[in-house]
Every structure is written in structure tokens, then in C-alpha cells.
Amino acid sequence: MKLFWAIVLALIVAAAATLVVTARSGANASRPSAAREESVSHEPEAAVPTEVAGAPPPGTAPIQPDATMAGAPAPPTAPAMEPMPTPVLGAAVPTPAAGPVAAAEPAAAPLVDPLATGPVRLPRVLGDYEVLASPVEYKDGALHMDGGKFVVKGAGTREDPLRVPWELLVACEEEFDPASNKVAIPARVAVLHGRFVRLDGYVAFPLMSPKPDELLAMLNQWDGCCIGVPPTPYDAVEVKLRKPATGDDRFAVAGAVTGVFRVLPYVVKNKQVSWLVGLYVMEDADLATRQFGTTGQHTGQGS
Fold it and tell me: What string of pLDDT tens digits covers the 303 residues of the chain?
């Protein structure tokens, strides 16, 4: 009987051992795949790109943020454009000028004002010299000076210049002669300063100048060298023309010059004596070679 239970016990133990071996072999068969899965899931992080939160998957276009999403900033809006003016049919379209656009120049103001009726104001000084006080009156379209000794017609403008006789200019020597210590400019000469004046007389151009724009207007004829009477500071005027003389005017020996008259004493001084080199100048002048001899002497009457 003991033998029978020993055999049964042996069979039970053998069956249990068989089950244990079978379970272990099954577990070993499934263990390599699990190891492979574990090795794949535990590779270094650098080998697999880390996904950024919210980034689109690779190969897909980026998703634009929606302005309606909570917390998302609104996209900038373009500035509002002003409506274009409606073109007018038939209107002329201005064409831009080529090159830089120059600023519009103001209209040139007249150089001097015309004389007004009544007493004429005189400059107090001209250069370094005082002006003698003497009454000068403008009436009936003419200047009246030295108690009526000199009457000069005109308004002192380019259109109506003062027609000055040479005797008035030459008489300046009576009051202004630096060599004789006379250093006051008479009122009858000072009143002409800065006004348009016309002088009829002889003229001389610089030699060897094809287009002369300067000349010497004189009381007496002089060729610049040997023929005639050499001028003095009182009976000659240095003239600057507005435009050079051309054609036959270059060979003129007489004519009428009209321009802005200036009294500019040019005095050379040394320890012993002072002498006058130049006195009268005319600027912005015109030359008319066919009007010579039409102006009177003392009264300034003529054309």
C-alpha cells in the first residue's frame, strides 16, 4: 500500500516538474521581443527629434494662428488708404519738368522810386564826405536847384531819366576839390546819386576789345591818346553797359548813355597833398549813338 502512494506521489511531482519546465520555456520564447521593444523605446533622445508643443508634424504646412483663439495677439492691420480723387475727363495733366525744380524767383523791384513833388531828401554823406545842405525841390516834372540856376527834367527812372547837363557836373569843382582842402559834395550832385540819369556827350571805348561793355562818357572829345582834350574827374563818367556794344556802336565817338548814376569819390592821399582821381560812375547803362546832341545845357531840356 505504501508503494502505491509512493508511485502516485512520484507521478504528481513529475507532472508538476513538467508544467514548471513548460512555463519557463514559454517565458523565455517571449522575452527577446520584449527586450527589442525596450531597446527601441530607450534609445538616446538626440536620435529622435523632440516635438515642440503645438508645432505641426513634419511635412505639413505651418498653421497660422487664429486671431479668435484665446490669448492669441491680433495680426497687425494695414493702414487705411485714402480714396483716390476721381479724375476729371478732359483735364490737363501737368508734366513734371526735367531736372531739378528751381524755386520761383520773385519779381524784380524797381531800382529807384520816381521823384515826388516837393522838397527832395538828400543823403547826409557819400562815402567819406559830407553833403552840403542846400534846398532841392521837385516840381512841374523837374528838379530845381541852386535857386533855379539848374533845372533838370525827368523823374529819375529808366523810363524817364534825369537829363543832366555837363555844366552841373563840372560845377562840383567849386565845392569839392580835395587838393584845395574842399571836401564837401554839393547838393545838386548828391541828389543824382542812385537815380537814372541821361548824359549826352562823347564816348571812348577801351582799345583792342571786340565786345566792349565799358566806356568813358565825356564832355569833350578825346581819342584816348593824342587827339582831343583829356578828361578830368569832373567832366567824365565811367560807364558800365548792361550788354556789350556790337556792330557800328563799337566805333561810336558820341552818343547818349542812360543808367544809374553814382557819386563815388576816389581820392589818393599822401603826407603832402590829396588829389581826386575819379568822381562819377554810371551802372546798368544803355548806349544810344543816334541821340547825341538832343539835350540842352543849363536847363536839361531836349528829347
Answer: 555 666 666 677 666 666 655 556 555 554 544 444 444 444 444 444 444 444 555 555 554 544 444 455 555 555 555 555 554 444 444 554 554 444 444 444 445 678 999 999 999 999 999 999 899 999 999 999 999 999 999 999 999 999 999 999 999 999 999 999 999 999 999 999 999 999 999 999 998 888 999 999 999 999 888 889 999 999 999 999 999 999 989 999 999 999 999 999 999 998 888 999 999 999 999 999 976 554 433 334 333
Query: Quick check: 202 and 216 in contact, CB under 8 A?
Result: no
In a domain, 38, yes or no: no
CA distances from 247 to 95, 107, 244, 256 (A): 42, 32, 10, 17
- Residues with Cβ within 8 Å of residue 274, at least 6 apart in sequence: 178, 179, 267, 268
φ/ψ of residue 57, rounded to 5: -60, 155
Cα gap 270→258, rounded to integer Å: 35
Q: Provide the CATH number for the domain around residue 184.
A: 2.40.50
In a domain, 95, yes or no: no
Contacts of 206 (CB under 8 A, 6+ apart): 212, 214, 215
Containing structural domain, residue 225: 118-288
Question: Count of domains in the chain?
Answer: 1
| CA triple 193-197-199, angle to 5 deg | 125
Looking at the domain assignment, is residue 37 inside a domain?
A: no
Q: Do strands 236-241 and 274-288 pair parallel, antiparallel, or not at all (unpaired)?
A: parallel
The three three-digit cell numbers of residue 253, written as one number: 565817338
167 in any annotated domain: yes
Give every CB contact of residue 279 below 8 A, 6+ residues apart in sequence.
172, 176, 233, 234, 263, 264, 265, 266
